[in-house]
């Protein structure tokens, strides 16, 4: 072969090139053998011409032939090797891979392999395809049973899949991943993500592989071979929030909310303080849930029905009796809405201040609680602060305080501890499966006599009375700084520090142009320009030390 190639002329090369183009699929082994000879001649001649033209030698050139009808690609090299590859379009989601080489693999056997891959008998889907299929199954699950798999749960799962896409080689064949390789990916996740995220993503990996086991991996599940405690043994498990607040802090928050710039902000937060309901339920509240518009005494959060998810976390109906202060909030909102119509949302009770056509934003509640609570509203051992409480006051502390406060008052008033526990649980809609293990609840006292509602009303009334009483006592006293006031004071001090440092720089330099040059050039060995250093406390300390050193040198000289 080498001797014949060394004497190859341009005419022979041109003839070989023409014959190569004329050879079309489907191919027989005889055709393939002929392609081997032609490919060797073409590659040899073209590489020899590149050397003559002093073109830098590239990687060994290859020539390809395709059998599109059988999703096959044949690759020919100078040495005479013939390799068979699958050639499925990207839209198929099947990862293309090497099938084998001739003569061990014939064209007929290669066609059979691609046919098996095409119809799922021999799976070779890539990881991206499996993730897409899993995500689509979640969407279908939500569409089929929204009461069991909520839109919020769907978004959570989709966010986790999005994170996993960053950690996995998406083009790689799903079937090729082993348990050992999955462990290496999990190790990277542990390094890159927070402890809680690592635990959640490991659980999500197992869900994906369990889903794909029979569909895409021939019944194999390498994720199940990883130790159940692989991640939890390597990271600290997330702890529940153990911090809390007290009556004085809640009473001061109630007082401070009077200065909120918008009636919706004030009333939404105050309603949450009085009721202890979850922050997500405040934006959901609708006028149609009230038993009366003129004098409401009850608001009913609907249960789930077929195809429609309920408003409460446990999907059960929740009747919230309205106390005097709660009713005042609702009536104030109603009066505002009647004056604002038709330029506002007519369905929801609490609206967004910036867009009155939308219900109140759940995240806005968190900011309001942080801004108007006293700076030290969060109580308890600082070591017990996890995500909640790390940035100060938080919404669910109102729910926690409701249970603690109401329970303490009832026990003080003579209630048995167990009865106080059950009543606060009833008021907060904390239902447990063991309360009715067989699902056969024959108690219709609520429907007939409103028994549960009356009991809840008493709990809400004593909780409300304690807050309003303490708020009245504190009104004439000096209140603590709020989170917003503390932040403003901190910003003011920081701005004054920046100004003082800039003035010192100007005093150190003579010309205005020198000041501009100074703040725009790297300072010492920090590698950062002075104007950026001035923005942080650590950076200002660096600039101060530099100026002090310069002044000391000037005195010595």
TrEMBL record:
The record's section on Gene3D superfamilies has:
Intergrase catalytic core
InterPro entries in alphabetical order? DNA_brk_join_enz (IPR011010), Integrase-like_cat_sf (IPR013762), Phage_Integrase (IPR050808)
Superkingdom of origin? Bacteria
User: Which controlled-vocabulary keywords does the entry list?
Assistant: DNA integration, DNA recombination
What is the similarity comment for this entry?
Answer: Belongs to the 'phage' integrase family.
Protein name (record): Integrase
């Amino acid at each position: 072969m080498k001797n014949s190639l060394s004497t190859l002329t341009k005419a022979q090369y041109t003839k070989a090139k023409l014959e190569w183009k004329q050879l079309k699929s489907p191919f027989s082994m005889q055709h393939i053998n002929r392609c081997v000879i032609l490919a060797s001649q073409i590659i040899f001649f073209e590489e020899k011409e590149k050397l003559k033209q002093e073109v830098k030698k590239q990687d060994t050139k290859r020539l390809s032939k395709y059998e599109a009808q059988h999703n096959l690609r044949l690759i020919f090299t100078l040495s005479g090797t013939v390799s068979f590859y699958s050639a499925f379009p990207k839209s198929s989601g099947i990862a293309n891979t090497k099938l084998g080489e001739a003569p061990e693999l014939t064209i007929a056997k290669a066609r059979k392999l691609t046919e098996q891959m095409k119809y799922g008998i021999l799976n070779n889907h890539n990881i991206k395809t499996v993730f897409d299929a899993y995500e689509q199954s979640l969407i279908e699950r939500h569409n089929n049973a929204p009461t069991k798999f909520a839109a919020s749960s769907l978004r959570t799962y989709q966010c986790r899949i999005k994170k996993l896409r960053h950690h996995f080689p998406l083009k790689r064949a799903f079937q090729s991943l082993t348990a050992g390789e999955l462990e290496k990916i999990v190790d990277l996740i542990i390094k890159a993500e927070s402890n809680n995220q690592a635990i959640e993503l490991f659980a999500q990996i197992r869900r994906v592989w369990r889903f794909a086991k029979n569909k895409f991996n021939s019944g194999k599940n390498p994720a199940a071979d990883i130790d159940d405690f692989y991640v939890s043994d390597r990271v600290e498990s997330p702890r529940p929030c153990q911090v809390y607040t007290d009556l004085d802090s809640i009473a001061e928050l109630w007082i401070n909310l009077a200065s909120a710039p918008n009636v919706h902000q004030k009333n939404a937060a105050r309603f949450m303080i009085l009721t202890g309901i979850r922050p997500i339920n405040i934006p959901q509240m609708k006028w149609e849930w009230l038993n009366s518009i003129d004098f409401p005494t009850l608001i009913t959060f609907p249960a789930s029905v077929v195809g429609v998810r309920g408003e409460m976390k446990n999907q059960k109906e929740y009747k919230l009796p309205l106390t005097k202060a709660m009713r005042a909030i609702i009536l104030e909102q109603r009066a505002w809405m009647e004056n604002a119509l038709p330029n506002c949302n007519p369905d929801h009770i609490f609206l967004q201040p910036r867009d009155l056509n939308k219900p109140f934003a759940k995240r806005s509640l968190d900011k309001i609680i942080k801004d108007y609570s006293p700076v030290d509203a969060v109580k308890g051992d600082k070591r017990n602060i996890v995500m909640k409480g790390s940035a100060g006051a938080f919404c669910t502390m109102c729910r926690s305080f409701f249970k603690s406060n109401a329970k303490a008052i009832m026990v003080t008033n003579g209630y048995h501890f167990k009865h106080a526990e059950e009543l606060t649980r009833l008021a907060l809609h904390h239902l447990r499966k063991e309360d009715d293990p067989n699902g056969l609840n024959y108690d219709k006292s609520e429907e007939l006599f409103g028994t549960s509602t009356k009991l809840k009303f008493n709990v809400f009334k004593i909780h409300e009375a304690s807050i309003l009483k303490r708020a009245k006592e504190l009104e004439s006293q000096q209140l603590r700084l709020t989170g917003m006031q503390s932040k403003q004071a901190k910003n003011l001090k920081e701005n004054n520090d920046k100004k003082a440092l800039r003035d010192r720089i100007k005093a150190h330099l003579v010309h205005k142009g020198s000041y501009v040059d100074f703040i725009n050039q790297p300072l010492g060995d920090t590698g950062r320009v002075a104007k950026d250093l001035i923005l942080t406390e650590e950076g200002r300390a660096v600039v101060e030390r530099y100026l002090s050193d310069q002044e000391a040198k000037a005195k010595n000289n």
